[in-house]
Design goal:
This protein is mainly beta. The protein has strands at residues 3-7, 10-12, 18-25, 33-39, 46-51, 57-59, 67-72, 77-82, 91-100, 105-109, 113-117.
Length: 119
């Protein structure tokens, strides 16, 4: 049974920084794409950033230059370093793991961690 557990959320002032962590258990997930998503109140869940097993990173335009996604395969963890945060970054942030091959597609989600950007 794979479990993803996020931590590091909280209240941060505009312009501040926060680091989210997601630890996986139950499987190594080394060949999975790992990602962060977020969902603001009343809005659909949206992709934020992802990192492939080879280390390729992608970001949604609104967080480019401010957020950095990293993975530590040995520790089965991913991180989201958030800097220069804005009120519009307020959301529940979810950790994701996804893998697809010729025969199967698998996806796992964490329970989410709340990030609130407010003065």
């Amino acid at each position: 049974q794979v479990q993803l557990v996020e931590s590091g959320g909280g209240l941060v002032q505009p312009g501040g920084s926060l680091r989210l962590t997601c630890v996986a258990s139950g499987s190594t997930l080394s060949d999975f794409v790992r990602a962060w998503y977020r969902q603001a109140p009343g809005k659909p869940r949206e992709w934020v950033a992802s990192v492939t097993s080879g280390g390729g990173r992608n970001y949604r335009d609104s967080v480019k230059g401010r957020f950095t996604i990293d993975r530590d395969t040995a520790k089965n963890m991913i991180y989201l370093q958030m800097t220069d945060v804005k009120p519009e970054d307020t959301a529940v942030y979810y950790c994701n793991a996804w893998h697809r091959d010729a025969n199967n597609e698998v996806e796992y989600w964490g329970q989410g961690t709340q990030v609130t950007v407010s003065s």
